Amino acid sequence: MAGGEGKRMRPLTLTRPKPMLPVAGKPILQINLEVLTEFFKKIYVVVGYRKYVVMQHFGNKFNNAEIEYIEQKEQIGTANAISVLKEKIRNKFIVMNGDIVVSENVIKNFVHFTDENNTENALCLTKVENPSDYGVVEIDENNRIVVIEEKPKNPKSNLINAGIYMFDTKIFRLIENLGKSERAEYEITDAIKILIKNKEIYGYVIETNEFWMDVGKPWDLLTANEILLKNIKSGIYGNVDERVTIKNNVIVGRDTEILSGSYIIGPCCIGRNCKIGPNTFIRPYTSIGDNCHIGNAVEIKNSIIMCNTNVPHLSYVGDSIIGEHCNLGAGTNIANLRHDKAEIDVKIDDKIINSGRIKLGAIIGDNVKTGINSTILPGTVVYPNARINAGEIVKWQFGRNLKL
Question: Among 3, 98, 328, 391, which is most exposed with the fewest C-beta within 10 angstroms?
Fold first, then answer.
């Protein structure tokens, strides 16, 4: 299911659907498709919001699996997204949210669990510390789901809906009879409640050695990026000058040049056709997309730099996410730490949200340009197409009302 915008991820999703946001050098949806194509030869991708971004990236085939796109014309809930497949599905099938990140063994063990329990309806569950932010689930001693409740104030369980389902075709009949929820959407949770009444749905609890993560807010991208980069293996496919220092696991894409004096500490990932250096310092947990230029005396730390973006010289970028087609003028500095070392608040649209992070730089949308010696304060959100003047100090929000 890749049809939604992801409003909590703004401004990054103003120009792309949420599952196309990158971590560890790949869109989230690509990471999930790499997992799914290990087990399935036909995958339906439900698209809607900015569907062309998904379709152009993947085409009709990925990792030898056939990809077929089904449009959800209105984004009116998860049940509605599943219902658009009614004419395509003839057997039991797996549904997966496009904006979560999982390891291969989650899918493998989930399928094995459904076979063991001889069930055609099941739900992946995971334990979290803050269950009231999710759909909370209770199971009995036989792993049958007995309760599912959306965002309860006083949850009785720390198990939540992990956004991976197995259904048979009966689910389509149940969805047809659903009414809209309080959010004016058709919720798959309501269909699951009917299955619970009939004792027809089981819950598989994700194990501690399996990886699952919900990417719900912009700074979650940094967390996911860090976790995934820890598992990469070095691969130098570009050209590296002799006077370059590379430590730990680093990926350098094809046709990328790493120029003299650059110092790179992994784990980090650099895309294709980039120019890095001279004298660039790239610190751990940094992901740089394709066709980027990171230039002289620039330091990048624990950040995601998307494709076709330039940080040419004399700049610092820390704990930040920078969109595509951006250009930071010489001497642009992005601060990532308050003087009092308090957790950093972020203002997205009209809401102020505590990030829970002591270090957080900027969240910058696509096609942003900064002038020389500009300063961006911790937790600042910069909207697409913004122009920051030379010497300007920017905080909270900038460029929100610009046209895309």
Answer: 391
pLDDT in tens, 323-362: 999 999 999 999 999 999 999 999 988 889 999 999 999 9
How sure is the predictor about 102, in pLDDT bands with cuts at 50, 70 and 90?
A: confident
Look up residue 71 and give its two tokens: 């449009």
Which residues in the chain are classed under CATH 3.90.550.10?
7-216
Structure tokens that stand for 35 in this block: 């997992």
Q: With contact defined as beta carbons under 8 Å apart, do 274 and 295 qualify?
A: no
CATH architecture group of domain 7-216: Alpha-Beta Complex (3.90)
pLDDT beyond 90 at 271: yes
- Residues forming CATH 2.160.10.10 domain(s) in the chain: 233-398
Measuring CA to CA, which residue among 216, 206, 186, 188 is closest to residue 98?
A: 216
57 labelled catalytic: no
Report the 10 Å Cβ neighbour count for 60: 9
Strands 93-96 and 159-167, bridge-based pairing: antiparallel
From the list 57, 112, 293, 313, the catalytic residue is 313
pLDDT at res. 404: 67
Average pLDDT, the chain: 90
| pLDDT of 137 over the 90 cut | no
Q: Which CATH superfamily is domain 233-398 in?
A: Hexapeptide repeat proteins (2.160.10.10)
DSSP per residue, 310-350: EEEES-EEES-EE-TT-EEPTT-EE--B-TT-PPPEEEETT
